[in-house]
DNA sequence: CGCTCAGTTGAAAGGTTTCAAAAACCGTGG
DNA sequence: CCACGGTTTTTGAAACCTTTCAACTGAGCG
């Protein structure tokens, strides 16, 4: 039973989060060390360069992981969705900052407790290994994008990714979960360049927009082609 | 005992590779499925988009992991050194190509056999998890570099990395393990840009070169500053 | 209804790439 | 040991794309 009075049994991501791999006893033990935490948009869970004190499962919302240079340039290096794990077990320091992109709720554990749960449960460890390998695959795809794709290709790629995640049917409208600034931060571009590329896609009839967030893909094939 | 007649006991990376976590029996079982393989510079172990058939430990040499776009643009997304693990357990398809940068020797296992060894040995699984988390950290640092650093910063960053790995004392000479082309492939630049940045660092007295590979860092502080 | 902030658009600047050619390097063979 | 030929590296100039700086527009909200 967590601080907020919700039990694991009624957790929105029960069955999808890492702790799905725990048996009843281990779950109870871990659960006793965890607590729910809500973050408003823009609030951070941890900061790069600071001690990596916590691990958490994202229950609802959306978070960004950002890396930054000494002089303040920033880059989003990952996005976390509900049921995703965030944190860095087995390391003293975090090298990313984790910030809520939308109002979010997490189940937070002291890092040491979470590590003990991992070590004590090979299934959960295996699950984390698989997820980490997938995250690494995604990171490598992003490296290719950041290093070799044009601005137009990057924007198209992101729109396809958002549409896929929004499970938007072809031509149907969905809301972008990111501002232009966040899109830029993710794609390694500037706000202006993102805006110009969206304008270009709209001019070519490939997408339609409605306000800043409303988005509809009119020509998925063309968008895929544009994504390189 | 592997094909080449060498046993694990006399393996050059025994104690550092993943299999250091295996007990005697498990090691014997895995070892029976593995074989040594030598690759000349430029030869590949696996190809992106093809079936991820093998896992391996790099015994000696150096390999690059490259991702590529449909139209052939390429980006190095990782480098493997002796004792490093290469391969993608738990996935049907590989999304990177693994190619030898120097004459290399690997201990290669069918993916299924390696996965069984992992599943049967929590210690090895834990070790792979830790290494994968470290690799992910490195990948994120690279994303930041590829997205936000200038050509000069990238080249300086790479030189520092190479010097560190070569354990070159301050001012001492060492050989770059990469050609200009490979440096460019790693840094998300072109050969010409890498060459121009090296020329600039040389002109500023920060480095000295001797042929294409010989490199000496004359002013480490300035180089660190230049790396951003 | 006006205010504020996010997003768009424009023009100029800047850095990197592209294309082209010269120079240096390296392994080979005489 | 030096000359040779192919390849890698360096250098130059122009083109290109993205960024920067600046101003405008539009949307959301009290």
Note the topology.
2 copies of one chain form a homodimer.
Chain A: H1 24-33, E1 35-39, E2 44-46, E3 54-68, E4 74-80, E5 85-87, E6 97-110, H2 111-120, H3 122-148, H4 151-166, E7 173-175, H5 180-187, H6 191-203, E8 207-210, E9 214-217, H7 220-226
Antiparallel strand pairs in A: 1-6, 2-6, 3-4, 3-5, 3-6, 7-9, 8-9
Helix pairs in contact in A: 1-2, 2-3, 4-6, 4-7, 5-6
Chain A binds a DNA duplex (30 and 30 nucleotides) through α6.
Description:
- The structure is a homodimer of 228-residue chains.
- The first copy, chain A, is α+β, with helices and mostly antiparallel strands and 228 residues long.
- Chain A has 2 domains: 8-141, Sandwich (Jelly Rolls); 149-226, Orthogonal Bundle (Arc Repressor Mutant, subunit A).
- Chain A is built from 7 helices and 9 strands.
- Chain A has helices spanning 24-33, 111-120, 122-148, 151-166, 180-187, 191-203, 220-226; strands at 35-39, 44-46, 54-68, 74-80, 85-87, 97-110, 173-175, 207-210, 214-217.
- In chain A, strands 1, 2, 3, 4, 5 and 6 form a 6-stranded antiparallel sheet that branches. In chain A, strands 7-9-8 form a 3-stranded antiparallel sheet.
- In chain A, strand 8 (207-210) and strand 9 (214-217) form a beta hairpin.
- In chain A, helix 1 (24-33) runs antiparallel to helix 2 (111-120), helix 2 crosses helix 3 (122-148) and helix 4 packs across helix 7 (220-226).
- The longest helix of chain A is centred in the middle third of the chain and has 27 residues, at 122-148.
- Chain A is elongated.
- Chains A, B: It comes from Sphingomonas canadensis.
- Chains A, B: Residues 149-221 form the HTH crp-type domain.
- Chains A, B: This is Crp/Fnr family transcriptional regulator.
